[in-house]
């Protein structure tokens, strides 16, 4: 069965929890591997072989939807052309896109990158420097820009947008809306989202400037790894990374103030695109009300 359901983003908006929620549904199969990133040629952490990709859905028997979740699909301008490639592969697919206050999303993404063990993603800069000097943090939360190619190829009826804060505030209503869009009845009472990927008390740092970690993820290590005993693999992990308490000064309040003009313009364009407002995005609006924060 070809996949026909995709959670395309956005990163740090609860997509992992949503993936596992949909996997509970008897008429939905979600790939055991989250983030295969198949339609992003630059994403090289998994094979690009079509047989390998379709093999992720070999167990999707007797279901209406087979799906996967890859937030790399909505990371313009780093990855372009994804919507066109996915449309050529599955033109009748349904797409789910989750959004949250773009400033809170960027801050959460920053903390996520401080924990990444992939050298190219690992964030070592102070928060304020990273968020104000690296435009990708805010670009990934420029939801209008990210959505435009998907709406162009698939049309608005095939793209469901969810607001993270609304899901947190009224989970049952929003999840029932999602299932109705899929033509499915509500989930049984008690089924819902589990919080996943919350920010831990420690961060991961790379030893040796990431050189050892690059080797651990190289094709040479892939060939040698099956021959290595378990204790040696564990030792390799200890040699490449270390866990340390979060010592960095949290300058998120200052970052919020600096990012607000950018985020407000992004949200204005999103409101025009979707013809709706986002009253729960209080960090961007600057309202006194507290935002709902999950890391």
How would you describe this protein?
- Helix content is 43%, strand content 12%.
- It is of the alpha/beta class and 295 residues long.
- The chain has 2 domains: 5-199 and 248-285, 3-Layer(aba) Sandwich (Rossmann fold), CATH 3.40.50.300; 202-245, no CATH class.
- The strands form 2 sheets. A 5-stranded parallel beta sheet has the order 2-3-1-4-5, with helices on both faces. A two-stranded antiparallel sheet has the order 6-7.
- Strand 2, helix 2 and strand 3 form a beta-alpha-beta unit.
- The radius of gyration is 20 Å and the shape is globular.
- The chain starts with a strand and ends in a 10-residue tail after the last helix.
Summarize this entry quickly:
This protein is of the alpha/beta class and 295 residues long.
The CATH topology of the largest domain, please?
Rossmann fold
Instruction: Give me the CATH architecture of the largest domain, please.
Output: 3-Layer(aba) Sandwich
**Run of helices and strands:** EHEHEHEHHHHEHHEHHHEHH
**Between the first and last Cα atoms, what is the distance in angstroms?**
34 Å
Rounded to an integer, what's the Rg over CA atoms?
20 Å
| Residue-averaged pLDDT | 86
Uncertain runs are none
Approximate helicity band: 40-55%
Kindly report the spatial arrangement of strands forming the biggest sheet. 2-3-1-4-5
The largest sheet is: 5 strands, parallel
In total, the number of strands is 7
Query: What would CATH call the class of the largest domain?
Result: Alpha Beta
Structural class: alpha/beta
Number of structural units classed as domains = 2
- Describe the global form: globular
**CATH homologous superfamily name of the largest domain?**
P-loop containing nucleotide triphosphate hydrolases
Please work out how many helical segments DSSP would assign: 14
**Residue fraction in strands:** 5-15%
